[in-house]
Structures are given as structure tokens and as C-alpha cells.
Amino acid sequence: MRGGLDQAIQKQIESMLPGLTSLRSQILGLTPDLVSIAFEPDSSIPVAAPCLVDALHVASEARYALYEAFAHLDWYRRHDPRGPNEPAAIFFGRFYTTAAASCLYAAAEDVANAIIGMFEIDRQKVDRESGKRTSLHSKVGAYLLKYMQTEEISRAVVALGQSDAWAKTMRWRNNWVHCQSLVQGLGIVYTRKKRWNTFGGVRGGEGFVLDVGGGDEPEYSIDDVVGFVRAAFSDFVRTFDLVATCYLRILSKAGMTHRSEP
Predict the structure, then answer these.
(1) If we measure between CA atoms, which residue out of 235, 14, 220 comes closest to residue 104?
(2) Torsions phi, psi of 42, nearest 5?
(3) pTM of the model
(4) For residue 102, which phi and psi values (nearest 5 degrees)?
(5) Cα 70 to Cα 16: distance, rounded to the nearest angstrom
(6) What number of other Cβ atoms are within 10 A of residue 158's Cβ?
(7) Cα Rg of the chain (Å, integer)
(8) pLDDT of 170 higher than 90
(9) What Cα–Cα distance (Å) separates residue 119 from each residue in 56, 122, 214?
């Protein structure tokens, strides 16, 4: 387990991660019961309120995981009294970045559900036109691009989906869930592939060779992973903030004045 870090290092890590205070003040006071007063009984707009609150909680978990990723890397590389311990730094860095990436996936799903509610989008239509997309946030992004191109929220959601850091983070999460999340520095690792390789044999024939030992080279270092997950978190917070602002505008037009939390 890592030890404590001095305040200067804690502040440095905090400065690398966008805060959620503004979002918290906008969202936490939203309750679907009170929001429902301003809308017809069959409206789905109030349903967006708990979706946004859920997204805020999960985004907070993502931020905590990223903070701990940086803290563990710093502790085991520079402050462990037993000396630098790179394997431990990488182990904990991977643990916390996979947690952060998974939280970001879940938070994006919550925001996508909020968008469906706040714009009263037909969920079945979203599913029908999704093609091979599996995540709801990618389905909603495609829907917004097709039917709501001029909306500010559409541009923000599409930009998030096109972010290189977001794509890498979702791939990191998907590999962790469905395949492998390999990083450099944890000894010999093997990718899940057949081990025999082909080569051109004599007289145009084909031969096979088996390279024994040595393992395979992981795609990322832990610093690569922490870097793109942090960038994806920043991209997500910007999009989330805009979605929350749009929702408050919808409430305001319906005559509901939202009182921000202190």
C-alpha cells in the first residue's frame, strides 16, 4: 500500500485533473419529483435528472481512480522508503486506470440516457439506426449527428466520440473486459494468438516456425495509459458540463428555476 504524499505533490496531481465542483453545484439539486412538476405526465424530460446525477457520481469515481493512479506511480517511483519499485507502480497504475476507464464508459452511458430523456428521443429508433455500434453513447452520438446536427450538444458529443484520447481509453477498457490490458514492465507477457508463424519454404512451399520464449511486446507503457485516460477524462468533463447546461436551459424554458447547490 502506498504511503502519504506531501501537500505539494497532492496539489500537483489535483491540478492535472479537472474539478467537478461546477457540475456538482448544477446537478445535485435536481430531483425528478420536482422537475416533473414543470412537465406533462408522459414527458421523459424529468428522467434525465437522475441520469445526470448518476453520471456525476460515476465521474467522481473516475477522478478518484485517476488521482490514485498518479499517486501510486509517484509513491512507488520516488517516495517508497524501500526504494523505487517500478513493478508495483505499474501494477497499481494499471489497476486504477482500468477502473477510471470503466467509470468513464459508465458515465458516458448515463449521459447518453440523459440526452435521450431531455430531448425525448425514441430509444427504439436510436437502436434501429445504430448499425454495429454497441455502446449507447456511440449510438446517441450517431443519432445526434444525423438528426440534430445544428445543436450545440450534438457537436460536443460527436467531438468526444472523435477524440483520440477517448478512443484509446474506450479501447483500453474494452480490451480489459473482453481481451487483455497489457502494459510494458510487468515481465514476459503473451498476447492471445496462435504461436506458429509461417515463412516461405523451398521451391515456393510454405513452412512454419515456432519462436519459443521472449513473449510479446505490449502496445503501451503505463505512462501512455495514464496520459490518454487523463485526457479522455478532461474531454468527458467538458462534454458533460455542456449537457448539464443544456438541460438547465430546457428546465428554465419550462418555467423551472434551478437553485444551484453551494
Answers:
(1) 235
(2) -90, 5
(3) 0.89
(4) -65, -40
(5) 10
(6) 16
(7) 23
(8) yes
(9) 19, 9, 54
